[in-house]
Write a structure and sequence with these properties.
By secondary structure, this protein is α/β, with parallel strands linked by helices. The protein has a single domain (9-238), classed as Rossmann fold. The protein is 44% helix and 15% strand. It is built from seven helices and seven strands; from the N terminus they run βαβαβαβαβαβααβ. It has helices spanning 18-29, 43-54, 69-83, 106-133, 155-174, 197-205, 215-227, and strands at residues 9-12, 33-38, 59-63, 88-91, 137-142, 179-186, 235-238. β5, α5 (155-174) and β6 form a beta-alpha-beta unit. α1 (18-29) runs parallel beside α2 (43-54).
């Protein structure tokens, strides 16, 4: 939604740290005001706010469990009440946990689906319908190369991220032509806690570029998808060639 004389607004879920922080700062530097969603307040969240303020962005923080639809709706209400507009939603919230097919519990499976799929679904649907009814907008969801090339031992996570890809492609149809909906599928960017150096190197060696990416690489891709007005329904890998390479990296 565009209004004369006001800065555009980007809402970034899980925007306080890691890749989310890089996305927030990319939009702040591009001239956006930013709404940062978080679920658990950590020191990195305030650091992100301070860095965004330093480049001239107005920032508001909002805590929510986005797997609960009512809380996703409240995030929209807070944003519109403060800024009277929403131009971009980045559905970045997610979680990562190993779920071997014969070992994981119902609770772990539900958590992976809630954190990675339902959180993205409720916030994207809520903001997308509002954008369509009030002008236009852009949504970018964070998927994963695992949605397209599943990882052994991460059944629930792979299913959830594959659902994000299906969500993006469906919303791109349902919200067109007013709202563009895309996804970024990162490869080896930031490794989960507990990954050994050997595990990290193995993932790096499976890329064509033979190096990990950075959160800024992902943030630049998100910003590109929001800026290009003729792209929708796309899942953009930012993976150093991981999808193109075989499991041995060739």
């Amino acid at each position: 939604m565009e209004q004369e004389g006001t800065k555009p607004v980007a809402v970034v879920t899980a925007g306080g740290a890691r890749i989310g922080q890089a996305i927030v700062l990319a939009f702040a530097r591009a001239g956006y005001n930013v709404v940062i969603h978080y679920r658990t307040l950590r020191p990195a969240v305030q650091t992100t706010v301070d860095l965004a303020h330093a480049v001239g962005a107005e920032v508001i923080l909002h805590q929510a469990d986005l797997a609960v639809r009512a809380q996703a709706e409240q995030l929209l209400e807070v944003t519109v009440q403060r800024f009277q507009r929403v131009d971009v939603l980045v559905a970045n919230a997610g979680a990562f946990e190993r779920t071997p097919v014969d070992q994981f519990s119902d609770d772990v499976c539900r958590r992976m689906l809630d954190d990675n799929l339902f959180a993205a679904l409720w916030v994207s649907r809520t903001f997308g319908v509002w954008m369509r009814n009030n002008g236009n907008g852009s949504i970018v969801a964070l998927a994963d190369v695992a949605a397209l090339r599943p990882w052994r031992g991460y059944l629930a996570y792979n299913i959830a991220k594959a659902g994000v890809v299906a969500m993006v492609r469906t919303l791109a149809k349902d919200l067109a032509p007013a709202v563009r909906v895309n996804a970024v599928a990162p490869g080896p960017i930031l490794f989960p806690p507990g990954f050994s150096e050997e595990q990290q190197q193995r993932e790096i060696d499976r890329t064509l570029l033979r190096r990990p990416g950075s959160p800024e690489d992902v943030a630049e891709a998100v910003l590109f998808l929001c800026r290009n007005n003729y792209i929708t329904g796309v899942v953009l890998p930012v993976d150093g060639g991981r999808l193109l390479a075989g499991d041995d990296g060739h």
